[in-house]
Write a structure and sequence with these properties.
Layout lengths: L3 H4 L10 H7 L11 H10 L4 E9 L10 H6 L4 E9 L2 E8 L2 E8 L2 E6 L4 E6 L14 H11 L5 E9 L2 E8 L8 E8 L6 E8 L7 E9 L15 E6 L18 E2 L2 E2 L11 E3 L6 E6 L1 H10 L6 E3 L5 E6 L4 E8 L2 E7 L3 H10 L6
Length: 362
Amino acid sequence: MGDSRVTRRWVLVGAGTAVLLGAAAVTLPATASADPEDLRTRILAGLPPHVGYAESTGRLGLPEIAALEQVTALFTSVTRLRTRYAGPEAWRVDELTPAGERDTYRLGGREYVWDFGANQLTVVSGETPVRLPRAADLVPSELARRLTSLTRADPVSALPARRVAGFDAAGLRITPADPDTTVGRIDVWCDPASALPLRVEVAARGADQALLFTEFREVSLSTPEITVPTAPPGAGEVTAEAADLAGALRQLDAAPPPPRLAGRDLVPLAGGLPGVGVYGAGVSGFVLVPASRGIADRVIDGAPAAGGTVVDVPVGRAAILTTPLLSVAARGGIRRGGVLVAGTVAPAVLDQALRELPGRRP
């Protein structure tokens, strides 16, 4: 779902509940098989139409980050998803919550967001090359597409088959080769006939148990009808540019990102957000996000209590929060305030990036 260019920039990956992770990891008898390289190629070629219900959870343990509360909340609880997928430009994903639901549609080159709690429909125009994660990214088929795109050159091997959502699913394992990434394996199970991804697991390097997984509980290979949503009587309706919805990624007065950090070149982004930079490729890349001094200071001040470490930098102050899969760093007192840096990379990479950031605005 969405432009394939965006998949390389999707960096923040999160947490959840260990109880459900363990309960859902029971393998049922299955005999499906498929060549893993061929299966990956078919996933990358495109997803088949489907309708289903999925749940995503994990146990990464990322603490809440100032100005990114909605993102960290999304990845630190069970996410329940209802999806209808007719094609890359015709889909709908509903995030189901105790308070209602938040529905995201894509149709005719536009996106629409219906927020039941806010009683508001937002019509979104345009796109940005970088955005924050959303619930729709955790649908098994979409997450598999994104992760296989990020790791298309990495080694792949076969996994034992398993039963998922009533399907006899064939499995593949991708093992990222870059020693700087914290991602140890990406396991995907698919319907071998259609190559529809049904379950995805992501584990940290050296870990046996997955820290993030998502799977369909029910799914059918049918083509849904996707229609443009309309606001019900009494509801609000607004139109917004995608850049205006970038939230914490949008700092109009941010300084340009450095051309190189931690041995990685800045990735060119067409129509990028001010100050935002992507460095490196695949699951060994990281993103630089401008932040206000208050946000950076709150992350740095809260780092020790969250198990983070203070980093000695030439100007200002800095800290790193680490989990087995994701590292997040902050530096304050620079570049008109501060920055956040995050990625599925070793803490040493972000440590180096923090130290290399210029101490003042160019």
